[in-house]
From TrEMBL:
BP term (GO), one: phosphoenolpyruvate-dependent sugar phosphotransferase system
ATP-binding found in the keyword field: no
MF terms (GO), sorted A to Z: kinase activity
Subcellular location(s) per record: Cytoplasm
SUPFAM superfamilies reported for this sequence: Duplicated hybrid motif
GO cellular component: cytoplasm
The protein's name: PTS EIIA type-1 domain-containing protein
Keywords of this entry: Kinase, Phosphotransferase system, Sugar transport, Transferase, Transport
Domain PTS EIIA type-1, first and last residues per copy: 32-136
Main location per the UniProt record: cytoplasm
Amino acid sequence: MAAQLSEARASIPIRRVICPSGPLLPLPQVPDPVFAGLMMGDGLAIEPLSSTLIAPCDGVISQLARTHHALTLTAANGAQILLHIGIDTVQLGGAGFTALVAQGDSVRQGQALIEVDLDAVARQATSLISMLVIANGEHYQLDERASGLAQAGQTPLLRLHAMHATTT
């Protein structure tokens, strides 16, 4: 019974927004070897055109970086979605980032999570390219992945399904 519930939960698709509007990129095109090599997991990247990181789906903030440049959202299907703003932004020590949520908060799809001072971060970081990565992707298959220009709140970004049932 637990395996059936977990399998049903895991097949819930994640289909909507990531962070801000902007051009989407495959992770291998990201100018960071860790993300480009999919060492953190598979997903996609975006060149943000707006300053608000929004929740790609309903879930719980399971981790929020002390420097507010990244967070992990655990979705209803169990997927752990790492949202990482920019490249080498941890070195900014939190400058340019304002968290609008806290670890443990339940969030709704489209809810504002982090405000970014794009000008300040762009001047100091390697790149503003931001990543959405499925951190526990070994349990999920990415059935669909968007490309082109994303519109916050409108563009379906990806669809995930469990590769096998897990027990909880």
